[in-house]
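Same chain as my last thread, 233 residues:
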Amino acid sequence: MIRSLQGTSLIEYPGRISSVLFTAGCNLACPYCHNPELVNVDLLDRELGLSHDEVISQLIERSGFIDAVVLTGGEPLLYQSNVDLLKRIKEETHLAIKLDTNGTFPDRLERALQFVDYVALDLKAAPENYIFATGGRARFTAVRESALMLINQFEVEFEFRSTMVPGIINAEDVLNLLDEFAPAKIKRYALQVFRSEKTLSSELNGLPSYPQGYLEALSSKMVHCVEDVQLRI
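reply #2:
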């Protein structure tokens, strides 16, 4: 289910002007999620949504204004039909495609890779803390499989990214995650600053973020195994 389309974004796809498609629904319940209305589909007005034909039509109308499209969520790979949508976008619009995913559907990710140009994979916590970080809904096993899939292919550009939520993930956890994939050299890893203005769990509302200096110190420790560490404020 495609909930909505944002016409133009300069930040969602690195180096490109994109339209952004938001998928409703997610298989996880990360307490820090900043899109609770996309996670809890029961909160949505079911009359509001876009068919795949409408998505394609709107993207074609924006030809000349955008050169890419981003499929995000929620979790886009929650639905097999979204893999079919990626195929249609690639064949009917020829736009570059970025897919955002939590990595818990490696089989669907494998099928989607033939249609996308860029994947952003969330690494939410240390492996032993994945149950807590995902609201009791996921272990790290499938995410590891998805991450290794991306590392071991060479056609699709990708990034790993972590939202740095105090109490859920810290600097040591990120370094341990990188050790999971050693000796591979990761091209890009984004450290995203946690924002507490709107979260799935009200217990995190108002929680202070890590200081910028903390994240800068972490990024300096990552350069031995990551080519490009980005701090996203």
